[in-house]
Design a protein that fits this description.
The chain contains seven helices and ten strands. The chain is an alpha/beta fold. The protein folds into two domains: 125 residues, Rossmann fold; 69 residues, no CATH class. Strand 3 and strand 4 form a beta hairpin. The N and C termini lie far apart (49 Å). The model has no long low-confidence stretch (mean pLDDT 94).
Length: 213
């Protein structure tokens, strides 16, 4: 079993697959335990889109090819479904960290056959805390953004949310796009692409996003 996890220091973004709103769940406590670790934590749960977890917006699915690490809190069946969906829609293979309970022999064998790097049987949070690991090159606190369909006007609303802020829950069916500044810079989805086209020569993308809100 791998014991040297110094490579985690080079990781900047961590997608938490199966993040939960329930405060007693390990996939919720992770965001408190790792809050000051420097990693950009990205909660993934399609059922919770439009809501936040400790000030971070839920996303339905990882949004780009530059994903580095997936920490998975799903059942083995859902884990395999998630991995296959990623493989069918992306060419990259982020490191998969299977939290205890997310793996079985079928998942392990599938990952091995796919030549996909993974860690299993140990907890990512406990490992990083025990080995005193932190992100060496953190992004810092990032603003995030949401575009949603307004029920009254039927228009699309673009909003900027400052770091660690929360919002009133938005119906997930009305959310058209959600992401932070990194997503806004690189996500190929048509909404962030359009925002990028509106950037003026003298502006940062963050300033553009704020101007449009």
């Amino acid at each position: 079993m791998e014991t040297d996890f110094q490579w985690l220091k080079q990781v900047k973004s961590v997608h938490v697959i199966g993040a939960s709103k329930k405060s007693d769940k390990p996939s919720n406590r992770l965001f408190l335990d790792m809050k000051n670790s420097g990693w950009r934590l990205i909660p993934i749960n399609p059922q919770s889109v439009g809501d936040t977890i400790h000030g971070l917006p839920f996303r339905p699915f990882p949004q780009n090819e530059q994903s580095e690490l997936f920490v998975v809190f799903l059942s083995p069946e859902s884990t395999l479904e998630f991995l296959k969906k990623w493989m069918y829609t992306h060419s990259s293979k982020p490191h998969i960290w299977l939290q205890p309970g997310a793996e079985n022999s079928e998942v392990i064998n599938w990952l091995k056959q796919a030549n996909w790097p993974f860690t299993s049987s140990i907890c990512w949070v406990e490992t990083t805390l025990e080995q005193h690991l932190m992100c060496e090159y953190p992004y810092g606190n990032l603003p995030w953004y949401v575009q949603y369909k307004d029920e009254a006007s039927h228009c699309s609303i673009w909003r900027v949310i400052e770091p660690e802020s929360s919002i009133q829950v938005i119906d997930k069916e009305k959310v058209e796009w959600v992401g932070d500044l990194v997503d806004l810079e690189i996500d190929p989805d048509q909404i962030p692409q359009y925002i990028r086209t509106l950037q003026k020569a003298h502006e940062t993308l963050e300033e553009t996003a704020k101007r449009l809100s």
